[in-house]
From TrEMBL:
Pathway: Protein modification; protein glycosylation. GO terms for cellular component: Golgi cisterna membrane. This is Fucosyltransferase. InterPro entries: Glyco_tran_10_C, Glyco_trans_10, GT10-like_C_sf.
Amino acid sequence: MIGLNNHHMNHLVNWTMTHHSGSDVVAFYGKFLSLGDTTRPLRPNLMSQHKKTLKRYMKDLKAGRTLEDVMGPSWSTFVKRPKIVAWMSSHCPTQSRREAYVKELQKYMPVGTYGRCGTLVCRPTGPLKEPCWRHELSTNYSFYLSMENSLCEDYITEKLYNPYQYNLVPVVYGGADYTKYLPPHSYINARHYHPRDLAALLTRLHNDPVEYGRYHLWRGYFTASVRGSFCELCHLLHTSTTPSHHTHIGSWFMNRTMCHSPPKNMSELYNKNLT
């Protein structure tokens, strides 16, 4: 923010490119692509850009289709995990107080905690690395705590898309409206549950392969990717004819970010009215 607030830089910005949907170009950490679709939308991180696939998926979801119906015999590879939930983090404490939520959750169920904020180690490469996801998390856990370190509007990082890519169900915790970005019934929002109730839900789903498998049903319609895109920027460079110029870019960014601090009262961390 020092650079953004520098008065020498304030008048030099023509386009903005941040995580926020109000930017001229949106920079996102991951996205979904519709299976069988040869066209790619400029903002594939938005579910609204996958209307046909989303309509077909929702029809089958409401009809009660199971993961076995969609994926055949391979469905069982998604549901047979010995442990329930894991969390990896290298930063604590955080602005979002996610570590406080995890601590409360651990009163009601085991949580495999990796990284500097935890007690477990992924070997041989350590946490946050691809082999850790592939060989440790995806083979042992049903759920992953995708908890952002800041509660900001539209702020979603690779913490969310990694579990999707490695066949876990994410338990989200952040400031974004996840309904805009994720397939319905593909995630669980921790901020809608007291940790005691979340523990009961995750345990029940872990012990019910068919019901848990429905949280993977989306895989028959979409594929997830931990990768951004420069398509929108490239499109603007080739097609935009409207002059654009920003002033006071620091103020613009602060107004668009819409970050807020969680309440100090622990019980209010999981108030569904906050999201």
